Structures are given as C-alpha cells and as structure tokens.
Amino acid sequence: MQKEFIPYHLPFPTHTTGLSFVKEVLESGKTAGNQAQSLICKELLSVDFPNSFSFLTTSCTSALEFSTLLAGIQPNDHVILPSYTYPSTANAFLLRGATLSFVDSLPNSPNMDLDKVEELITKKTKVLCVMHYAGISLDWEKIERIKSRYNLTIIEDAAQCLDSNYVKNGTDYPLGSLGDFGAISFHETKNISCGEGGLLLLNNKNDITQAEIIYEKGTNRSAFLRSETAFYEWKSLGSSYALSEINAAVLRAQLMQKEQIILSRLKVWNEYKLAFSKISVPFVPEYAKHNAHIYYLQLADYKESVEFIQFMQKEKIQTLHHYRPLHSSDFFNDKHDDRSLVNAINFSNTLVRLPIHHEVNSDRVIETVLDFFN
Amino acid sequence: MQKEFIPYHLPFPTHTTGLSFVKEVLESGKTAGNQAQSLICKELLSVDFPNSFSFLTTSCTSALEFSTLLAGIQPNDHVILPSYTYPSTANAFLLRGATLSFVDSLPNSPNMDLDKVEELITKKTKVLCVMHYAGISLDWEKIERIKSRYNLTIIEDAAQCLDSNYVKNGTDYPLGSLGDFGAISFHETKNISCGEGGLLLLNNKNDITQAEIIYEKGTNRSAFLRSETAFYEWKSLGSSYALSEINAAVLRAQLMQKEQIILSRLKVWNEYKLAFSKISVPFVPEYAKHNAHIYYLQLADYKESVEFIQFMQKEKIQTLHHYRPLHSSDFFNDKHDDRSLVNAINFSNTLVRLPIHHEVNSDRVIETVLDFFN
C-alpha cells in the first residue's frame, strides 16, 4: 500500500467560516486594511492581550520594522539579539542603520543565553531584542533585570508565540505582551494563520498616537477618520503596515477556533514527548507554558541530522532543519566579533523539526522515528 | 424619493470568481506568498509588461521601499521627487536616510514640472522619482534626457497607472515599465484591486538576483526552492514583501476582467469630459493614454472647493480633495528650501475628484455638478 505523504505543516481547516467572512468583505467593497474584520480580530485578540494595543500588520517582519520605528532607532544605535533566529529579526534593525551584536543559544535550548547579554552592553546599546523559540518562553525575570539596570527598550519577537505564556507565581503572562513591543506572526506556517500576516502589540499606552501615524504611512489619517482633524497630512516616517480585510477575514475564522487548533497540536506534541523521552525532548522550563508550535529532535551531529531527514523523506514524512546562525552567515560573518557561538551553530546543525498539525498520523511518525534510532 | 448615496469609489464586483479562487487557496493550505495564484497573476501581468520582471507586493508602498533597497540608496543620497504625491513616495526614500528635494506641479496639471528638475541636481543626486497623476503619463522624453545626462536612477511611482500608457511614434509603452523600477498599487481604491497589494516592476534583468533575495527577507530562498543551493541563509538586507496567495486569488479575478473594468470607467470619464468641457477638463497630453483612474475638477479656490464638496455631499455624492503638498507639510516644512511650489499648493486647494466606477449614475453626478456652477 502507498504511504500517504505527511507534510511538516498544514493550516487548520477553517475554510467554510473563513470563506463566508471573505465573501462579506468582497461584497462590501471594503477590502483595504483596518476596517470591520480587523476590528473583530482585534477584539478577539484583546481576550489574550487585555493590556496591549494591537495593530494587524502584513507580516511579523513588518511588525518588527514597525517596532523599530516606534523605538526611534537611529543610525549606529546598538542592538543585542539572538543569532539563532530568522533574518527578519536582524534586518528590521539593520534597515534603521543599527549595529548588531548576536548572542549564543543556551546549551540545552535554542533560546538565547541571557547570561551573555550584559557583557555586550555599551553606552550605545538601545534595544535588547529577544525571541522565544518554538513558543517556549525565555526567562523573563532575567530580561526585566537587564532592562531596568540598563534602561533598554525590549522588543519581543514572539513570531511563534500566539497562546504561549510566561508563568510567574501561578499567573500566565502571554508572550508578546511582556516587552515594550511584541511582534507575532500569522504566516501560513504558524499555528494560527492568514497567509501572510502579523500583529504588533504595543504594551505602553503613550506610544499609541505615534503608532497610529506610522501605521498609516506617516499620516494622521486615524485622527481624521475619528473627525479629530479636518484633513490628514504627512506627519512622520511611516509605512503601509495594515493587513487587508481579506486576510483579516481569514484570520478571524482561525482565531475563533484557536483553542481547538492549539489543543490538536498539543496532543501530538505530548505524544511525541512520551515516545521520545529517551531520545530527545525539547527543554521546557517550569516558567514556560507553550503552544506546541514546534516539536524538535536533536541529532548527534549534522551528518546524522541529514541522514535522519533523508530516512524520514523516504518514508514520506517531511522533517526540517531550522535557522542558520545569523552571526556566521555570508552576509554578517565579517561584521561579527570573534566570539564563537557554539550552541547556535550546534542547534543549526542538529535540530530537526517533526510534522505537527491537526492531521498528523503521529503513530506513524513515532514508529518511523524509532525505526531510525534502532 | 430618497436619493441613493454615490460613493467616490467602489471596487468592480468580481466576487464570484474571486471567491472560487480564494477557496482553492484555502483548501490547498498554500496561503503564503508567491505560490500558484501569484504565478497566474504574474502571467496575466506579463501581457501588459512583456519586458519587465514582476514581484507582487503587500502594497505599492512596499514596492517603492523594495525599489529603494534595489537602487542601493545610502544615507545622504539626494532624491528629487514631486511635492504633489502621497507621503509613501517620500517615506520610501527617507527610510533609507536620503535627502529630498520636492518639485512643483505644472501650471495646468498636477503632474510634476520636469523643467524644474535639472536646477536641483547636485553631485549627490542619485534618483529621480516620478509619479504619473491620475494615470496620465509624464513627458517621458524629458525624463530620458535628464536620466542620460546625469546618469540618474529613475523610480516610477505608477501607483494609479495599471493600463495607462505613454505613446511615442504610435507605440504604447505601459507606465511602470519605463523607469528602472516601477511601482503599481492594487489598493481598494485603485481600478484593479485586492484590498492591499502592489507590484514592483524590474525593468533591468541584471537586478533580478538581488531582487529575489531582498523580496525573500534577505535570503536566497528563491534559489533554494529551485534546488540551486542545499540550504538558504541570510544574504542581504531585505523585508517580507510577498503578497499572500489569498490576495493574489482576488487580484487574479480582477485582472481577468481588466478590459471591462477600465472600459466601464472610461465611459464615465468621457461623459464627464463632454459635460464639463466648459468647466474643467483634466489636461491629457497627446502622448498620454490614460486608464480613467481619476476625473477631477478644478475649482476657483479653496473656499469654492469646500463649498462644492459640501454641496455635492448634501446631494449624497461623495467628492474628494486629494494630496496636501509634501514640501509644506508639518513634517517637512522646516527641511524644505525656500522655493515656493505654487502649483502644487494650488492643486491641493482646488482639485476635487468626482466619483468614478462601474456603478456611478453619471447623469445624476453631471446634473448636480452643473447645478452647482449655474
């Protein structure tokens, strides 16, 4: 019998509802950003982020770029960020002319080693950008300590983190709401998706006026639409960050099914954890409550990881490496100082992601993985 | 009898076809950018732009930003651009740290006065950015002369110009394809729309490799997807410019009806022209073949223009001013030199746009406008 292909990812099917919302949008003719569907999405999101102000964006990348404008980054400002992350995390700052220092991962987790941050701080350091890998929270207490000691702006790349939490004294704090700014992704590959899309969370109310202007191509159109001014005009740097209503309609349907989507992933994640307890289990600290965005295995070395991926491929199961470390990339290598970031390189070589979504035949994946290791 | 409201704009209804394509996308799970629907859109667009390489983007703003990265603009490079345009035209360059000089409009057209460009050129001038207002072509021969004399990069803000042409010796040259880079908008308010969306046209083949990298967040993912490299990594500055497949599906349906959409607008435009021949007709030079994106009237002064808009509003007809000149905006005023750009200010004060779309009751609009002037 032909085995069915198991893709790494598959968006959760909310087609019927999604299509009915898209139909509403197309029939209304109100298809540009920040109209009826976007407002509904923002209301749905306000349950998760009651203390944040949210802007739907065209991508998590644009949410990050939006945050760098809000943070007022100037040429030669210094930014500290992880090496094991997506290039957009770094480009957002480089586009503002910032200089970058990359930080290694922890030995036991792809997440950045926060104990390596302070030694990099100079008078020019303006931002600490953090990224929670696989929706697994960083140690926020450490970040708070660094922030208050050096008065840094914290930008939280929470691309993978919708419905992930940092837990302190029994209370859940949603990732994305902890930094000064948080960026979340709704890309096709994320738990909750609308093709291309993102979210900027403003966690300080005094940023709202400027954020509205930057979001509206540097104009005071938002105030104009509220009849607070007779006309609108150019006020600031800015861009076109608004997510179209068509994508917002699709996002709305996804957000309505959020619990079910996350539960279906957690089920698979926990099955993997049980089955691979003696092989490889992602490190989840006690303060992290994650959203099952990624289940990864760590192989012995790069060679074995390639063999593993090829083995799984023959069995029609798609598995994937993840990031190449930014500090040693073709593009940045000659700008990096001489610190060797061995853990980031190690995760780049050995981390392999297993399929995780509502349709995964986890028994077959587990059996095949165990076959490889036996 | 209650009069029906006539909105300034209404996207042409391609809902049924559009929805069926969106359904395809959602069912496939392939919702992120640059997949099946985008390829079809690019094929449809290649009929209009046979000599250009096209990238679908999240907006015309992002297409312009994309072009400024491709043009390699560095801090303090000098850019010359019109004052009577949308803030995004200017922000795209300011985001790269460029210095700007704004040019006045012509006395008889909102389009920029190309005879005022050369006096502004310095050794630092790198780009001449031009914008064809209302889809009505600038005098491209003048632009070519300036380009070749001073070796400038020409960036063509063709936001309003899909299906507009520059005509020379009986041949039509599509706007957007004439500069080194051309940017087109598919925003809700444009003739052909998909909510938020845009198009970057590359008109030089040697820009393609770098464009593919910038488009894919500064990585060589495009080469990777063509199996030209074993993995993809960070190679350059870049951003997330790709239009989602969901929007591309909507765009595809619109592009399929392009002729009909433009014809339905041209019909209204020509009716207005005939009716208002003694009041106000937009100046269309012999070398311009336009797409009926905008029909504007010029009122005597700002006061009359406001009275006109209010008069039309009472009659339930939406009419609109357009741009506020960028050079004298709150944001740029103190950075502008002391040239007074009287024509740009004049068009800002006196230009009013009439409703134009497939559903306009043009008889009622004409009658009401004539009522105002009598």
Give a description of the structure.
2 copies of one chain form a homodimer. Chain A has 2 domains: 15-256, Aspartate Aminotransferase, domain 2 (3-Layer(aba) Sandwich), CATH 3.40.640; 258-373, Alpha-Beta Complex (Aspartate Aminotransferase, domain 1), CATH 3.90.1150.10. Chain A is 36% helix and 16% strand. Chain A contains 12 helices and 14 strands. Chain A has helices at residues 15-28, 36-48, 60-70, 87-94, 140-150, 208-215, 221-225, 245-256, 258-275, 302-314, 342-350, 362-373, and strands at residues 53-57, 78-82, 99-103, 105-106, 109-112, 125-131, 153-157, 165-168, 171-174, 181-185, 198-202, 288-289, 295-298, 351-354. In chain A, helix 1 runs antiparallel to helix 8. Chain A is globular and about 75 Å long. The model of chain A has no long low-confidence stretch (mean pLDDT 97). Chains A and B meet through helix 1, helix 3, helix 4 and helix 8 of A and helix 1, helix 3, helix 4 and helix 8 of B.
CATH class of the largest domain in chain A: Alpha Beta
Q: Give the oligomer, counting copies of the same chain as homo and different chains as hetero.
A: homodimer
Structural class computed from helices and strand pairing of chain A: alpha/beta
**CATH fold-level name of the largest domain in chain A:** Aspartate Aminotransferase, domain 2
Greatest chain-chain contact = A-B, 66 and 66 residues
Domain module count of chain A? 2
Number of helices of chain A: 12
Mean pLDDT metric of chain A? 97
Radius of gyration of chain A: 21 Å
Task: Tell me the number of strands of chain A.
Answer: 14
Strand order of the largest sheet of chain A: 1-11-10-7-6-2-3
The CATH architecture of the largest domain in chain A can be named as 3-Layer(aba) Sandwich
Main sheet attributes: strand count, strand direction, barrel closure of chain A: 7 strands, mixed
The coarse overall form of chain A would be globular
- Portion in helices of chain A: 25-40%
Taken as a percent bin, the fraction of beta residues of chain A is 15-25%
What low-confidence regions of chain A span 5 or more consecutive residues with pLDDT below 50? none
Head-to-tail CA distance between termini of chain A:
24 Å
